[in-house]
Specification:
Layout lengths: L6 H4 L1 H16 L4 H15 L2 H13 L4 H5 L13 H14 L8 H10 L2 H23 L7
């Protein structure tokens, strides 16, 4: 396999900043379920095998079901498996991850702002931005899933 730099090793200050953002998200009001759904779904969209592997394991440790993880890529097709709040979070995750394809639709943002308070909505968006950053670091460095 092609050898690439590991940004986290090459740039310790960048690593510190990324872990600082991860720590903020970890301490936020976001539930573990919401955090892991965001991480897995964004990682699926970005095809980040390293992060899909890591966050699937983390989600299972936090009580997520195998069925919900397996079906996450098709969440829009599954009735009643994800809550209204989770569906909004998943839609936001897709919109922010694919931001260049039209941004966040106004109707989705309106529904999110009516469902979540400003702080929780801000934390959702920051969590989405955070995992997208990690995905790009991992994919750029050709990180491989751990056993």
């Amino acid at each position: 396999m092609e050898k690439r730099i590991n940004i986290l090793e090459t740039e310790p200050e960048a690593k510190k900043a990324l872990y600082g953002l991860a720590g903020y998200i970890e301490k936020s009001a976001l539930t573990k379920t919401h955090q892991e759904l965001i991480k897995i779904r964004a990682s699926q969209i970005n095809s980040c095998a390293f992060c899909i592997n890591m966050h699937t394991k983390d989600a299972l440790k936090h009580g997520e079901t195998t069925q919900r993880i397996v079906l996450l890529n098709a969440w829009r097709e599954v009735n009643d498996l994800y809550t209204k709040e989770e569906r909004i979070i998943l839609a936001l995750t897709e919109a922010v991850t694919l931001i260049s394809q039209g941004g966040i639709p106004s109707d989705l943002y309106k529904e999110a702002s009516e469902t979540f308070d400003e702080n929780y909505l801000a934390q959702i968006i920051v969590a989405i931005v955070g995992i997208n950053t990690w995905n790009r670091v991992a994919i750029s460095g050709l990180f491989q899933p751990a056993e």
